[in-house]
């Protein structure tokens, strides 16, 4: 969350008179809305930053061919993640599976697999046949070098870029939890005081 978002929330909270029950209920809704907007802004900032980085990488001749390849289209970007996940979880997939997940033709996925094998990003994996298993075809996953590269670059960047989003989400969630527990309690106290 940017410092501007935090200062807006802080100044708003300082202006709220929580002793007045009606005002605090209205203020609670206002703060909830303000926190939700801050979360949405953090999501937008992250997405814009990621897109800017992706464009910069795909146009930079000093970046590896493999990295430019996976940032050049959205399908290649997601396919890289499928390859890496298959490597990390030791669950390689077939071209048919990738085509179904990516909503692409088998021919397009076959082309991507061939290109990935050529740039040492994907490897064909031998999967032993199990009795009664009807799955057929070649199985693929990321090479160890691509998986290592992903862990050391993509995961670090994702962690850094999503930290503000997580902070904004957590702040919003905690405030909502607080108000859902506190407001009924305050209303009950206020009603008890009116009776006495």
User: How many domain modules?
Assistant: 1
Q: Helical percent range? A: over 70%
Main β-sheet, spatial strand arrangement = 1-3-2
Beta-strand percent range = 5-15%
Q: Quick one: how many beta strands?
A: 3
Q: Strand count, sense and closure of the main sheet?
A: 3 strands, antiparallel
Q: Which CATH class?
A: Mainly Alpha
Mean pLDDT reading:
79
Helix and strand run: HHHHEHHEEH
Provide a brief overview of the structure.
The protein is mainly alpha-helical and 196 residues long. It has helices spanning 3-15, 21-59, 65-71, 74-89, 95-102, 106-118, 144-195; strands at 93-94, 122-125, 139-142. The protein has one domain (3-195): Arc Repressor Mutant, subunit A.
List the helices and strands and how they pair.
Elements: H1 3-15, H2 21-59, H3 65-71, H4 74-89, E1 93-94, H5 95-102, H6 106-118, E2 122-125, E3 139-142, H7 144-195
Antiparallel strand pairs: 1-3, 2-3
Helix pairs in contact: 1-2, 2-3, 2-7, 4-7, 5-6
